[in-house]
Amino acid sequence: MGQRRLIVKGVSAAIVIFLMAASVAGTREVSGRQDGSERVVEIPVLNYHMVDNINISLSLAPTQFDEQMRYLYENGYQSINPEQLIDYLKYGKELPNKPVLITFDDGYLDNYTNAYPILKKYGFTATIFLVTSLVGKDPRFMNWDEVREMQQNGFVFGSHTVNHLAITTLAPQQVMNELVESSREMERELGVRPKYFAYPTGAYNRQTAELVRQAGYEAAFTIRYGRAGAESNLYAIERIPIFRSSKTFRSFYYRLTAAPLLERLGIIRN
Ligand SMILES: [Zn+2]
After folding, report:
1. For the segment 229-244, what is each residue's pLDDT rounded down to a tens digit?
2. Are both 93 and 140 inside the same structural domain?
């Protein structure tokens, strides 16, 4: 019994030391900036899809999602909105301690029914990227009333196009339609033009990023693995995808705390 506890303690200590080393290594890499500024922050932008009891990798069980939000809450994380992130990346505007940007892609109904109450419980808000052709039309997705209710409670909505096609496969005019029509519909329904965009399937290239900028969006999110920081391209901001797995929490924890280093070492991959 005692020996077993000792082993567990030893393993835990090793993990903690490893993570501390990892975070120091991560900090050193970004803090070598010319201006010598002290507080350089890399922001985790978490990327979720569904929060429901469906056993697929894109869907976390509500209990798993709750566990992760509770971890963030108990460890002092504060959810920020994309505007705060962009103000930090562009102008160095200050962020709260331990900022995290929580995002969802596609706009599933369970974001409203399951994730929203959990986020509220911990005082968090999130940013949700909508596929406008599905809102209020497909019962698996939210409707505009639900979206408006969340918007009134501090949630931010971005565009994820009209039809959820990989825009790198489309002609430039089609891409522009997807970008502009989704923006117009959101503006009609929500009263504000969406400022942020997430690439469906994560597919982007220099040309599509430029079209996103021309369509009037201020920033765009990829599913490229990493944290947002000084080196980030505003039209290709890294995120940390969170999936259901056999070890959902442990994977979440490693990805959140040491993702950049672990990724470089090839220890975790998408
Ligand atoms: Zn999507």
Report:
1. 988 999 999 999 999 9
2. yes
Do residues 260 and 224 make contact, with C-beta atoms less than 8 angstroms apart? no
Residue 169 near residue 203, CB atoms below 8 Å: yes
23 shares a domain with 51:
no
Ligand 1 mean position, distance from CA 142 (Å): 14
From the list 217, 241, 219, the residue with the least C-alpha distance to 232 is 219
**Distance from residue 200's CA to the centre of ligand 1 (Å):** 5
Please, where are the H alpha helices in the chain? 2-31, 62-74, 82-91, 109-110, 116-121, 144-152, 172-190, 206-214, 248-265
Report the CATH number at residue 117.
Answer: 3.20.20.370
Domain that holds residue 203: 43-265
Average pLDDT over residues 130-153: 98
Q: How many domains does the chain have?
A: 2
260 and 202 share one domain: yes
* Residue 219: strand pairing partners: 196
pLDDT of residue 90: 95
Whether residues 114 and 52 fall in one domain: yes
Cα–ligand 1 centroid distance for 170 (angstroms): 16
Distance 168 CA to ligand 1 centre (A): 14
What per-residue confidence (pLDDT) applies to 257?
A: 83
Q: How far apart are CA 99 and CA 84, in angstroms?
A: 10
User: Is 270 inside any structural domain?
Assistant: no
Q: How far is the CA of 11 from the centre of ligand 1 (A)?
A: 38
pLDDT tens column, 30-74: 333 344 444 558 999 999 999 999 999 999 999 999 999 999 999
* 249 pLDDT higher than 70: yes
Q: What is the model's pLDDT at position 3?
A: 52
